[in-house]
Write a structure and sequence with these properties.
- It contains 13 helices and twelve strands.
- The chain has 380 residues and is of the alpha/beta class.
- It has three domains: 87 residues, Hypothetical Protein Yqey, Chain: A, domain1 (Orthogonal Bundle), CATH 1.10.1510.10; 54 residues, no CATH class; 152 residues, Rossmann fold, CATH 3.40.50.410.
- Strands 3, 4, 7, 8, 9, 10, 11 and 12 form an eight-stranded mixed beta sheet that branches.
- The radius of gyration is 28 Å and the shape is flat.
C-alpha cells in the first residue's frame, strides 16, 4: 500500500469517527501529495512521498516559532497537534546514540582524516540514517524501477569509473583445459563430449532443445577443450590504509572491467584480501555490474605479504593471454612480479597509482597521479 492509499483510507476512518483533529491535517497531506503527483506527471515513489510529509512538518515547525514569538500559543498548539499526526507517516527519528554510531562508522569506512573529508562523511551518514533511493534493472534489462533502501539495510556504493581510450589488449588465444565450463561459448571448441544439466550463465546457443523438450529441464551441450583469449586484471591492495591512492586504484580497475570487451574473451579480476581472490567475467560468467559490486567491497590489505599476489598471478600464467597490473608502489616486490611476467613472455600493461615521483621509471610504466587520473589515461 502506498502512502497516498494509506492516507486516503485514514481519511475515511477519521470521517467515520468524526475525528476533526486528524481529518484536517490528513486532507491537507492528501492535497499536497496530489499536487506533487501533478507536478511530477507520474505517481510518486516512496521516497518522494516521505519528502512531501517531511516538508509539511518543517513548515509547521517554522510556523510554531513565529506564533510563539508573537504570543499566539493557541495557534502554536494547533500546529503541534498537526505535526503529531503527520509524523506518524514518517520513519522514526534516530536518537543521539544512533547518530553518533553512524558518524563513527562513516568516518571509519570513508577513511576521513580532516575537515576536508566532511562531504564524504555526511553522505555516508545520511545513507545510514535516512536511507537512499536506488535504481535497479529487471533481470532482462528491459526496464528500471526505484527501490528504497531502508535504515537497517546496507548500501553498496560502486567505484568511480573513468573514460578509457579504445584499447586492444595484445595476446593470442590460449588452450584452456576443460574450458567450456568457464568459457561458455567463447573460443573454438575442439571436441563434443556430451550433454549436461544447465548451469546459471550458460548461453542459449548451447542448449540442446530436443533433450530440453524430452526431459522438461534445460540441457546443454558440453565440449572438451577450448581455445580463447583470457586476460588478468590484477589489483594491488597492499597498503596500510584506504586513502586516495587506493580509491583511485579501485576506480581504475572498475574502469577497465567496464570498458574491456568480454564478448570474445574472459577477464580474471585478481586481488588479495583475507585470501587470494579471482573472479572471472565474460560471456557466460560474471557481468560487469557484478564485478563492480565486488570492487566496491575491496579493502586495503596491510597484514599480508605482496608475495601472495605474486604467486597467485604466476599460478595462472599458462592460461593467460595478457595482463593489466594496477600497482600502488614501485618497490622490489612489485618489480619482481613484473620481471617474472615479462620473462614468461606475457604481454603486460602496468599502471602505477602514486603521489610520489618515480625516478628512472621505465617507458612502459604508466604513472597516474590521484586527482589527475583521467588526464593520465588519455595518454595510454
Amino acid at each position: 500500500m502506498t502512502l497516498f492509499e494509506q492516507v486516503s483510507r485514514d481519511i475515511g476512518d477519521a470521517m467515520k469517527r468524526t475525528d476533526r483533529a486528524r481529518l484536517a491535517p490528513l486532507r491537507m497531506l492528501k492535497t499536497a501529495l496530489v499536487n506533487r503527483q501533478v507536478e511530477k506527471g507520474r505517481d510518486l515513489d516512496e521516497a518522494e512521498e516521505r519528502q512531501v510529509v517531511a516538508t509539511l512538518v518543517k513548515q509547521r515547525r517554522d510556523s510554531i516559532e513565529q506564533f510563539r514569538a508573537g504570543g499566539r500559543e493557541e495557534l502554536a498548539a494547533r500546529e503541534e497537534a498537526e505535526i503529531a499526526v503527520l509524523e506518524t507517516y514518517l520513519p522514526p527519528a534516530a536518537d543521539a546514540a544512533a547518530i553518533d554510531a553512524a558518524v563513527a562508522e562513516a568516518i571509519a569506512d570513508t577513511g576521513a582524516q580532516s575537515v576536508k573529508d566532511m562531504g564524504r562523511v555526511m553522505k555516508a551518514v545520511m545513507a545510514r540514517l535516512a536511507g537512499a533511493t536506488v535504481a535497479r534493472a529487471d533481470p532482462l534489462g528491459l526496464f528500471r524501477s526505484l527501490a528504497r533502501v531502508a535504515l537497517p539495510d546496507k548500501l553498496v556504493v560502486l567505484p568511480r569509473r573513468y573514460s578509457l581510450p579504445r584499447l586492444t589488449l595484445p595476446g593470442a588465444r590460449r588452450y584452456q583445459h576443460g574450458g567450456v565450463t568457464l568459457a561458455s561459448s567463447v573460443g573454438d571448441s575442439e571436441e563434443f563430449m556430451g550433454l549436461r544439466d544447465y548451469r546459471p550463465g550458460d548461453p542459449l546457443q548451447r542448449i540442446h532443445w530436443k533433450s530440453f523438450a524430452r526431459s522438461g529441464k534445460p540441457v546443454v551441450k558440453e565440449y572438451q577443450d577450448e581455445f580463447f583469449e583470457r586476460h588478468a586484471l590484477v589489483l594491488d591492495t597492499f597498503t596500510d590504509r584506504d586513502g586516495a591512492v587506493f580509491e583511485e586504484a579501485v576506480s581504475l580497475a572498475a574502469s577497465f572491467a567496464c570498458t574491456l570487451d568480454t564478448q570474445e574473451s574472459l577477464l580474471d579480476l585478481m586481488f588479495v584480501g583475507s585470501e587470494s581472490y579471482c573472479y572471472t567475467a565474460g560471456r557466460g560468467q560474471m557481468q560487469p555490474d557484478s564485478v563492480l559490486e565486488i570492487l566496491a567491497g575491496v579493502r586495503a590489505c596491510a597484514d599480508r605479504a605482496f608475495r601472495r599476489l605474486h604467486d597467485a598471478v604466476l599460478a595462472r600464467r599458462a592460461a593467460l593471454s595478457g595482463c593489466i597490473l594496477i600497482l600502488l608502489a614501485w618497490d622490489e616486490a612489485r618489480q619482481a612480479l613484473v620481471r617474472a611476467l615479462q620473462q614468461s613472455g606475457l604481454p603486460l600493461k602496468v599502471l602505477l597509482v602514486s603521489e610520489e615521483n618515480i625516478p628512472a621509471a621505465p617507458d612502459w610504466l604508466r604513472v597516474l597521479v590521484p586527482g589527475k587520473v583521467q588526464e593520465g589515461l588519455a595518454r595510454l
